[in-house]
Design brief:
The structure is a homodimer of 301-residue chains. By secondary structure, the first copy, chain A, is of the alpha/beta class. Chain A is built from 11 helices and 11 strands. The structure holds a DNA duplex (30 and 30 nucleotides).
DNA sequence: GATCGCGATAGGCTTGACCTATGAACCTTC
DNA sequence: GAAGGTTCATAGGTCAAGCCTATCGCGATC
């Protein structure tokens, strides 16, 4: 049985006439005769009572056409729905973002994304890198903003912008008077984030790679870390986008001598079919951050 | 688009694996790959995200499979319903019966019909001949029990049994003493049914064919006519099956010298597809009335 | 590095839906 | 009552499409 056959059935039932039904279906009358006959043979039921005048649906036919109409309607609903889904820039887009980036990046890019991609329903999801990669692989996310290189060939990524690190010091700190900070000088009293934050590893690497660095404190979030620094418990490195929040907290910021920083990338599954949406989202973010990245590059020269 | 394609779609979505889905569908894996690809091209939507591990349904696909499942389910419901309708001896069977026959025949044949054709839902419809023929032609009846020959080649009929007429007389009537009645002797004070009853025409023909026969009275039903005869207002001819009711009313019944009678026939549209049901119903009625018909024939010899 | 498993592709076969032309039955009209 | 115009059914040929087997390319795994 075929959806086409069901359409033929409905047409003949409606017109009660093979010729007119054939015209309505855009086929010849013999085609309809043959197909209806096949349908009758398949079902073992006479569907129409033919006479020289008309083709009247039998009682059995009347019982069947309800289902037939439902099937045809559902099939058409599939195509209609597909038409609406055709635009890859439309629909839900679940974007993972690491916690040291989300609170500072989202306010910058949310409105531009809405404006550039009005039909894309952006759903941000904040979590640490490994959790985001896991959710990417299980199709629970469509893309993720990370500050690390992707791992594994099943995922790919492209860089969006460079984010320099800044030294964050309490105002009364001995190094606060210097215009530029040498990272290794921070190692003595540096504070770091908890395990799992990529920023923790990057900070430690920039400051000398000592795994025992940072003492017993493990801040669970960047705002917490900033408050600790502001309170005079130590120093840290912060990503450039957090500069505003750090200054608001009364922290002194200084550029680093080695121009250390991180590259924010957007990552997605290699086979993800809505590549266009990923590209578009990345493009909007990169555009919005271009001034920031150029400023960072200029400052580094 | 095709129901087969939708089944393929559902299978791949369920198994998340082309090979296993192909096995479940009973086709080869390349077949499935090609058909799904065509479906994707038709819809303009990527349905599955393929990788070397698995074929995961996309968000778009998940939105579509609900409709797809509904369409396939409806299509299967058609076949299931058709299977139930396949037996022509099952289902509604609308049988028209003329009013001078229905009250006496139905009590005789209803139970035998139920027993012989338990799945046939018999719906009797009582009306005069012309109305029954009209309803037959408009497909509002499946068959009709008549006492006339069918008219027009679009309808056909077969005889079921012969029903002799009997002279019906008030006990005090002068002719009541005779063992056999000559029909034309009844003409003087005969009572007839209203226009439209075939029995009216047959009575008048048997008694001399005078159109002015029967005086001003036009009984609207046979029971009324019987009561009029019982009350002494005149005589009439009654069909044999009404004999019991007439005797109950206190009427004297006598055979006719010419053995006049009528043939009860079952009529149906020439193209009616449930011919088997018509034949079966007719057969049960003829069987049940065989004794009656033979008795009538014997009585006539 | 070889093997295995996945989906995609290629080439050839066969089915079946379609068309036009024609037939058979029936109705209407002159 | 013969002619012509309906109706649906049938016949024969064409062509698209679905299917198969064989093979490829890619990635993971041992």
């Amino acid at each position: 049985m075929n959806l086409r056959d069901l359409r033929y059935l409905l047409a003949v039932a409606e017109h009660e006439h093979f010729g007119r039904a054939a015209k309505a279906c855009g086929v010849s009358q013999p085609t309809l005769s043959v197909q209806i006959r096949k349908l009758e043979d398949l079902m073992g039921v006479t569907l129409f009572e033919r006479s020289s005048k008309t083709a009247a649906p039998t009682a059995a036919c009347l019982q069947l056409i309800g289902h037939a109409r439902a099937a045809v309607t559902e099939a058409e609903a599939i195509l209609a729905t597909a038409r609406n889904l055709r635009d890859p820039l439309s629909g839900r887009f679940r974007l993972g973002i690491i916690p040291t980036l989300a609170p500072y990046l989202l306010p910058l890019v949310f409105a531009p994304l809405r404006e550039a991609l009005p039909t894309l329903e952006l759903e941000p999801w904040e979590d640490q890198t490994t959790a985001l990669l896991e959710r990417l692989r299980t199709h629970e996310l469509d893309a993720a903003l990370l500050a690390t290189e992707e791992d594994g060939s099943d995922l790919v990524s492209r860089p969006l912008f460079d984010e320099p690190f800044l030294a964050a010091l309490p105002p009364e700190h001995p190094l606060a008077g210097r215009p530029v900070i040498v990272e290794t000088d921070l190692a003595r009293d540096i504070l770091v984030l908890a395990d799992g934050h990529c920023l923790r590893d990057q900070t430690m690497e920039a400051c000398g790679g000592d795994a025992a660095l940072g003492g017993p404190l493990r801040a669970s979030s960047l705002p917490t870390l900033l408050n600790m620094v502001a309170a005079g418990y130590g120093t840290t490195l912060i990503p450039g986008l957090a500069a505003g929040a750090a200054q608001d907290a009364g922290i002194v910021l200084r550029p680093l001598s080695t121009r250390a920083g991180r590259t924010v990338r957007i990552a997605w599954r290699a086979h993800f079919p809505r590549r266009a949406a990923v590209e578009a989202v990345g493009e909007v973010i990169a555009d919005r951050l271009r001034a920031f990245a150029e400023g960072a590059a200029a400052g580094a020269v």
